[in-house]
Amino acid sequence: MKAFWFRIRQWLHFYSRAVTKYQLHSPFVFDLANAVLEDDRWYYAFRDVEAVRNQMLTSDAQLEVVDYGAGHSGSRTGKVTVRKVARDAASSRRQGQMLFRLADWARPRKVLELGGSLGIGTMYLAAAVRSARVVSLEGCPDYAKVARINLDLLDLKNVSVLIGEFDHTLPKALETLQKPGLVFIDGNHRPEPTLQYFEACLASAGPDTVFVFDDIYWSPGMLQAWKKIQEHPRVTLTVDMFDLSLAFINPDLREKQHFSVVPVSWKPWKVW
Ligand SMILES: C[S@@+](CC[C@H](N)C(=O)[O-])C[C@H]1O[C@@H](n2cnc3c(N)ncnc32)[C@H](O)[C@@H]1O
Q1: CB 15: neighbour CB atoms within 10 A?
Q2: If you take atom 10 of ligand 1, which residue's CA is the nearest one?
Q3: What pLDDT sits at residue 170?
Q4: Ligand 1 in reach of 194 Cβ (< 6 A)
Q5: Average pLDDT rounded to a whole number, residues 248-264
Q6: pLDDT band at 74 (very low <50, low <70, confident <90, very high)
Q7: Is the CB of 125 under 6 A from ligand 1?
Q8: 176, part of any domain
Q9: First-to-last CA distance in the chain?
Q10: Phi, psi for residue 76 in degrees, rounded to 5
């Protein structure tokens, strides 16, 4: 309950400071907001991923939980149904479509996801840039198996799913995936590990790498971690869209800036 009220307060705080694309001075961020928040084009991939999600939401198949993080599943071991994981831990439709549009805009050649779960976010990312090499890390072998089946269903052959604790799989992934264009950090929502994963990925990142964080409003600790990421000397721009929060390290974006951005439809009176 405490966590619920924390998130409500944070949403109100975010909303009160958020701007629409019309208040943005940065052409780069204007373009990003147009692509991720305002583009209402519909893609067949959305229908396909949501059909897979709907199928999972009716599945009573049991999975063995192996949870190394601050999990959504409610337990760190034991059994859980596919339905429950799909309901509680997967990226929402809105987040998935934002991920798709972001990847479509950034056109990364390599994508790294920390925390693949059942593969919802992975499918959106991989479907957006089928030419990209996507590596998804997942600690729970049963979740990863379901993700693999889902990816195969959508014929997304550009994805490798690596199973194991991030401490083991991340160094291996970064060795083979130098300069990933997009890194989606969506596992283990604890501040210290999140900062460690960010630093590890930063060491392999190129100027065009986009870091995407889910759940910076998960807890006061995660919000602190986000503030540290914003203050990091290599971070040149952050764009918080509440559902997803982005950090850019491109040195060409010279003046460090932080934006909180919402779609125009959320603040229709801010069109001037
Ligand atoms: C919120 S879910 C990911 C949702 C997924 N990205 C999506 O878009 O649907 C987080 C996942 O990270 C995994 N995870 C958390 N901490 C981990 C760790 N330290 N090592 C490996 N996997 C971890 C969990 O097993 C869980 O499946």
Answers
A1: 13
A2: 187
A3: 98
A4: no
A5: 93
A6: very low
A7: no
A8: yes
A9: 39
A10: -95, -20
In this predicted model, what pLDDT tens digit does every residue of 141-156 receive, in sequence order?
999 999 999 999 999 9
- Domain membership of residue 188 (yes or no) is yes
> Does the beta carbon of 138 lie inside 6 Å of ligand 1?
yes
Helix (H) or strand (E) holding 157: none
* The predicted structure's pLDDT at residue 71: 56
Q: Which of 63, 136, 140 to mutate to test the pocket of ligand 1 (most atoms within 8 A of CB)?
A: 140
Please work out whether the CB of residue 97 comes within 6 Å of at least one atom of ligand 1. no
Is the whole model's pTM more than 0.85, yes or no? yes
| Residue 108 burial (CB count, 10 A) | 24
Cα(111)–Cα(125) distance, integer angstroms = 8
Mutate to test the pocket of ligand 1, among 186, 196, 217 (most ligand atoms within 8 A of CB): 186
Q: How far is the CA of 71 from the centre of ligand 1 (A)?
A: 8
Q: How far is CA 59 from CA 71, 143, 149, 162, in A?
A: 20, 13, 14, 24
172 pLDDT higher than 60: yes
Domain that holds residue 107: 2-49+90-264
Task: Determine whether the shortest distance from the Cβ of 190 to ligand 1 is under 6 A.
Answer: no
What is the domain-level CATH number for residue 44?
3.40.50.150
Distance 116 CA to ligand 1 centre (A): 5
Q: How many domains does the chain have?
A: 1
> Looking at residue 91, what DSSP letter applies?
P
